[in-house]
Amino acid sequence: MGELASESQGSKELGDVLFQMAEVHRQIQNQLEEMLKSFHNELLTQLEQKVELDSRYLSAALKKYQTEQRSKGDALDKCQAELKKLRKKSQGSKNPQKYSDKELQYIDAISNKQGELENYVSDGYKTALTEERRRFCFLVEKQCAVAKNSAAYHSKGKELLAQKLPLWQQACADPSKIPERAVQLMQQVASNGATLPSALSASKSNLVISDPIPGAKPLPVPPELAPFVGRMSA
């Protein structure tokens, strides 16, 4: 359509506008493709890789944590069982005083192991929350990268359209206004009595304007061409 308009003396500047529109939309489309590539590369691909790697890492970390927790819990249970046995011996003994030192040692050991287990569970909970937060931070960070590219896409499109749109609107503001060059051509034709070439007769597509449809109403004549209508028909 831009080529057809560019070959017309009356619509050449509109052909230029159509070419500009096509180029601007091509640039916007390229920006859109870059944004979609960013969404795929920055987010989807890395997220898939991250999920696969983290699934193995966190499963191994959880298994290690559970094994260590069970080991510390078993050690605590063993000390408590030994203390219980010792107290039974102490209660059935004629001289329970001789078990007091041993009992104190077990109580101290139980206290230490209990503290170790509680600290281990606390540290494990903190580690779990940290690992969880890292994953969500990773996701938000990648989304920010995608959002940044999205903002660039919209900003570029807005910039291109804001520069061109007023000129495009100005070009089509008055459809009835005939360019000066076309009026001059009309004057030359009218004064020389030559045949006015069709505006689209030289088109690459070899378009031929058909004869008027019988009974069809004539199109309104622009004011610039009104003086020549009578002479041309004559």
UniProtKB/TrEMBL annotation:
<dbReference type="GO" id="GO:0007009">
    <property type="term" value="P:plasma membrane organization"/>
</dbReference>
<dbReference type="InterPro" id="IPR027681">
    <property type="entry name" value="IRSp53/IRTKS/Pinkbar"/>
</dbReference>
<feature type="domain" description="IMD">
    <location>
        <begin position="1"/>
        <end position="192"/>
    </location>
</feature>
<dbReference type="GO" id="GO:0051764">
    <property type="term" value="P:actin crosslink formation"/>
</dbReference>
<dbReference type="GO" id="GO:0005829">
    <property type="term" value="C:cytosol"/>
</dbReference>
<dbReference type="GO" id="GO:0005654">
    <property type="term" value="C:nucleoplasm"/>
</dbReference>
<dbReference type="InterPro" id="IPR013606">
    <property type="entry name" value="I-BAR_dom"/>
</dbReference>
<protein>
    <submittedName>
        <fullName>BAIAP2 isoform 18</fullName>
    </submittedName>
</protein>
<dbReference type="GO" id="GO:0030838">
    <property type="term" value="P:positive regulation of actin filament polymerization"/>
</dbReference>
<dbReference type="GO" id="GO:0051017">
    <property type="term" value="P:actin filament bundle assembly"/>
</dbReference>
<dbReference type="InterPro" id="IPR027267">
    <property type="entry name" value="AH/BAR_dom_sf"/>
</dbReference>
<dbReference type="Pfam" id="PF08397">
    <property type="entry name" value="IMD"/>
</dbReference>
